[in-house]
Write a structure and sequence with these properties.
Length: 361
């Protein structure tokens, strides 16, 4: 099969022929239909986060089940599925207390003594985030995918697998936004727009979108923002504090920078919570004035929107088909696998929401 391989940090992905194994007892072989080009992948390409190389990248995807292992019970051949990087074991303390996204069990990966799921000419190749979806097929644990209704377009479904679940989940699960509360979202890329959409679905009374690009104004409002601040020419903290007379109830940082993470905390009001959903590069620290914690402000992280994805993702599909979740406008371009490097270069400009690789293109 064709796959996009990262061989060296800082270098473009290479389209190569890669071999994929047969499903083990609890594994599922999926024909990839669509895969989103996510900023998280770029972090690994640029070396801001480490991964074993060579590796097939990609983690935001949807497809059709081709084969299943002998013990698989949750999906069957022909099912349309969304994949999720936060595979869960189902019986660790995180799973049994309802925090599936925090599962750190190793059994969803193959044991070291077994052949790897991906190889090239007999040599092992790393599977990225348990998925490696920049490839024509994926071989994953059954607890890394969920079956969805077949009337859901798979290019839109793929986005739910990472950016949408991360953004919407951070609002409804991690921060538990309630009707009437106020929200600020820093960064209007795919994750930030999903957070804005999630805040609108949750019933937030005021949703302030913040981005460096003034061109994101109309797009943010389309997803549910009531206000827009261009951080290129305005101090967003001062503006939010003034607009809300003291700060928002919930702030969401969807960029992954030290400065914007600090801004998210500073624009919360008393009792407010700042959620860091962007990927701050390893080695960076953030600094905050200690006295502000006396106002019972909180700073917290969010991993994949604190999801329970076998329940959440089918519900998000229903939201989309009911017209409540805005996925169509998240897709800026539909591309071929060979165009993946161009998509990453365009991503760096900050002018696109999402490019989606279509494997039948």
């Amino acid at each position: 099969m064709k796959a996009a391989v990262l061989r060296q940090v800082g270098q473009p992905l290479q389209i190569e022929d890669v071999q994929i194994s047969k499903p083990g007892p609890r594994e599922v072989l999926i024909r990839t239909v669509a895969a989103g080009v996510c900023h998280s992948d770029l972090h690994f390409i640029e070396g801001k986060y480490p991964t074993v190389l060579p590796a097939v990248l990609g983690h935001e995807s949807a497809g059709i089940v081709e084969q299943v292992g002998s013990e698989v019970r949750t999906v069957k051949p022909g099912d349309h599925v969304i994949t999720c990087l936060s595979a869960f074991c189902g019986h660790c303390k995180h799973c049994v207390t309802g925090h599936l996204s925090l599962c750190d069990g190793a059994e969803t990966r193959r044991d070291e003594g077994n052949p790897t799921r991906l190889t090239q000419n007999g040599e092992a190749m790393a599977q990225y985030l348990n998925l490696s979806s920049f490839a024509e097929q994926m071989l994953i644990h059954e607890n890394a995918c969920v079956s969805i209704r077949k009337d859901m377009p798979l290019d839109r479904a793929a986005l739910i697998g990472c950016s949408v679940m991360t953004g919407v989940g951070s609002v409804i699960h991690t921060s538990n936004v309630r009707p009437g509360e106020t929200v600020a979202v820093i960064g209007c890329g795919g994750v930030g727009l999903a957070a804005i959409n999630g805040a609108a679905i949750a019933g937030a009374s005021r949703i302030i979108a913040i981005d460096m690009s003034p061109s994101k104004d109309n797009l943010a409002r389309h997803f549910g923002a009531t206000d827009f601040i261009c951080a290129a020419d305005t101090d967003p903290v001062a503006a939010v504090q003034e607009m809300t007379k003291g700060g928002v109830d919930h702030a969401f940082e969807a960029v992954g920078l030290k400065k914007t993470s600090e801004q998210a905390f500073m624009m919360t009001g008393r009792g407010g919570v700042a959620n860091i959903i962007g990927m701050i590069p390893i080695g960076q620290t953030i600094e905050l004035p200690g006295f502000m914690f006396l106002g019972e402000r909180r700073l917290q992280g969010s991993l994949m929107g604190s999801n329970r994805f076998p329940v959440d993702m089918p519900r998000l599909v229903d939201f989309y088909l009911a017209g409540k979740l805005k996925l169509d406008d998240l897709i800026s371009h539909r591309i071929k696998l060979a165009q993946v490097n161009d998509a990453f270069e365009e991503m760096k400009t900050g002018k696109v929401a999402r490019s989606v690789i279509m494997f039948d293109a």
